[in-house]
Amino acid sequence: MACMATTRQPNGPQRSVDETQEITPNNDIEGQQTPEGLEIEVFDYSKRAQWLRAAVLGANDGLLSTASLMMGVGAVRTDVKSMILSGIAGLVGGACSMAIGEFVSVYSQYDIEVAQMNRENRATQTELEDNKDLPNPLQAAAASALAFAAGAAVPLLGAAFIKDYHARLGVVVGVVTFALLGFGSFGAYLGGTPMVKSSLRILIGGWLAMGITFGLTKLIGSTGL
């Protein structure tokens, strides 16, 4: 912002001096007032927590549970039909289970928050107003079911067209590995958390889930049950 100031020199005439003052606002503080009266907002990543949690957990559960189920069946059956049918059953059953479980869980949270708001409003003799920050059970259930189905489709599509037994197992592990890294990075990006740390944590957990399922099923199958 520039302003003109007039100075008087001793025994001399007046002269104008152009004084320039540069003001740099602090953009790191939410609600900071700039000299022009503009308010700077910083995005709150916690606002994404509700649907992000349901979507990320649903996708990872769909990916890992379906892939582990297919690997378990593949440990004792070499035909592609058995693996695909087990994967489809896992996708449908898991998506329904995730949706119902998420709906019940979030609805319970919703009831608790509404009851607390009612108590506070009665204490202050005010009326309960609509609050957009309240959890949405239907939104959480839909996000969880769709994400589960999307995750479960990855190993199914990877194994659907591979007839060779060993190649099919390798393809399932490979596509699941890339999907885990992708889901981990995407969830970390949306949540504003470190991508590498989140991706590696999910990847290692996925490898353990598939390995343990394959190994235990192979062991039990070798007993002749």
Please, could you describe this protein's structure?
Residues 1-14, 22-35 have a biased composition (Polar residues). The protein is mainly alpha-helical. It has one domain (48-216). It is 67% helix and 8% strand. The strands form 2 sheets. Strands 1-2 form a two-stranded antiparallel ribbon. A hairpin with a 5-residue loop joins strand 1 (2-8) and strand 2 (14-20). The longest helix has 45 residues, at 80-124. The protein is elongated and about 70 Å long.
Summarize the model shown:
With 225 residues, the chain is mainly alpha-helical. It is built from five helices and four strands, in the order ββββααααα. It has helices at 49-74, 80-124, 137-160, 165-191, 195-222, and strands spanning 2-8, 14-20, 32-33, 39-40.
Fold topology:
Elements (H helix, E strand, L loop, with lengths): L1 E7 L5 E7 L11 E2 L5 E2 L8 H26 L5 H45 L12 H24 L4 H27 L3 H28 L3
Antiparallel strand pairs: 1-2, 3-4
Helix pairs in contact: 1-2, 1-3, 1-4, 1-5, 2-3, 3-4, 4-5
InterPro entries: Ccc1_fam (IPR008217)
Main location: membrane
Protein name: Vacuolar iron transporter
| Helix/strand/pairing category | mainly alpha
The percent of residues in helical segments reads 55-70%
Strand order of the largest sheet: 1-2
Radius of gyration: 29 Å
Low-confidence residue ranges: 1-10, 15-34
Strand residues, percent? 5-15%
How is the main sheet built? 2 strands, antiparallel
| Count of structural domains | 1
Number of strand elements:
4
From N to C, what is the helix and strand string? EEEEHHHHH
> What would you call the shape?
elongated
Helix count, DSSP H or I runs of 4 or more residues: 5
**What's the N-to-C terminus distance?**
84 Å
- For the residues shown, what is the average pLDDT? 77
